[in-house]
């Protein structure tokens, strides 16, 4: 018989985070993001202190029996052996990637961020690690507008950007044949602002 602390839930600590942990942000928001992106990741549990039981086992199989504090009839018909898989780890395929260039236009107030124009449905933008404007003059770095606590540290010539998301719209082919996954994803847009030149430096052509 193992103690109660031999069985513990996983997924709520920062060490179990599937998305990046942002120190200045409330971690409850990250947990909500992970829940809606991958609800099953909060169904993981750890069985610890099993080495003692394994040493006492003479056969080739080991049966684990978990006793609950109360009886829940709804579990009898919804939980089966096929829903228990050992040695599994939840993961989100999140990695850094240089995005395709964005061509700037003064006819719009925000610009669509696309990771790869040849495969637009294969990627979704999680966050922007850096944004730089290119033109005939020197490169113009843009800072995240809401992350700057002390604008005076960066000088008066600094430029900023904000991010907006909206649900991804299915293509005609996806509407006809169905999407590859139940998760549709989102599209990302950035708006630029320059404290000295509105809305941004006139010679900039690309991001």
UniProtKB/TrEMBL annotation:
**According to its UniProt record, what is one Pfam family this protein matches?**
T6SS_TssF
The major lineage groups are: Bacteria, Pseudomonadati, Pseudomonadota, Gammaproteobacteria, Pseudomonadales
Q: Which domain of life is it from?
A: Bacteria
What protein name does the entry list?
Answer: Type VI secretion system baseplate subunit TssF
């Amino acid at each position: 018989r193992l103690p109660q602390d031999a069985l513990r839930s996983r997924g709520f600590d920062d060490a179990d985070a599937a998305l990046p942990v942002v120190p200045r942000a409330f971690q409850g928001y990250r947990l909500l993001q992970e829940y809606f992106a991958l609800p099953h990741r909060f169904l993981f549990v750890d069985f610890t202190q099993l080495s003692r039981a394994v040493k006492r086992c003479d056969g080739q199989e080991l049966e684990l029996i978990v006793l609950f504090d109360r009886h829940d009839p709804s579990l009898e018909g919804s939980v089966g052996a096929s829903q228990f898989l050992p040695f599994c780890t939840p993961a989100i395929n999140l990695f850094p990637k240089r995005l395709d260039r964005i061509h700037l236009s003064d006819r719009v107030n925000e610009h669509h961020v696309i990771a790869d124009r040849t495969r637009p449905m294969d990627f979704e933008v999680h966050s922007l690690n850096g944004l730089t404007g290119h033109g005939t003059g020197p490169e113009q770095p843009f800072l995240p507008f809401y992350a700057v606590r002390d604008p005076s540290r960066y000088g008066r010539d600094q430029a900023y950007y904000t991010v907006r998301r909206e649900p991804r719209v299915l293509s005609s082919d996806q509407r006809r044949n169905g999407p590859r996954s139940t998760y549709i994803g989102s599209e990302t847009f950035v708006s630029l602002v320059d404290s000295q030149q509105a809305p941004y430096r006139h010679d900039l052509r690309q991001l």
